Amino acid sequence: MQLNKKFMVTAALMAGMTFIGLTSMQQSQPHEEMKAVNLKVLPKNLTHEQLEGIADEWALVRRAL
Fold first, then answer.
1. DSSP H helical segments within 1-65, as ranges?
2. From CA 42, how far away is CA 51, in angstroms rounded?
3. pLDDT one-digit tens code per residue, 53-65
4. How far is CA 49 from CA 19, 24, 41, 42, 60, in A?
5. Residues 6+ apart with CB under 8 A from 54
6. Per residue in 4-52, pLDDT tens?
7. What is the rounded end-to-end Cα distance, in angstroms, of the chain?
């Protein structure tokens, strides 16, 4: 029982130290913000009716999958 208790305490301390070490590490480069990119799949001069028609077609395709 004594050996098991020592093992658990040691494992808990090592896990805590690992967690603290990993969370306190600084990254070498700051995160760059992701910039939104327009895929430009559809032309800009679509009418509302054309856009609705395309959306309906894709909805049918998704239902078929």
1. 2-24, 48-64
2. 9
3. 988 998 888 888 7
4. 56, 54, 17, 14, 17
5. 42, 46
6. 888 899 999 999 999 888 877 766 566 667 676 666 688 889 999 999 9
7. 58
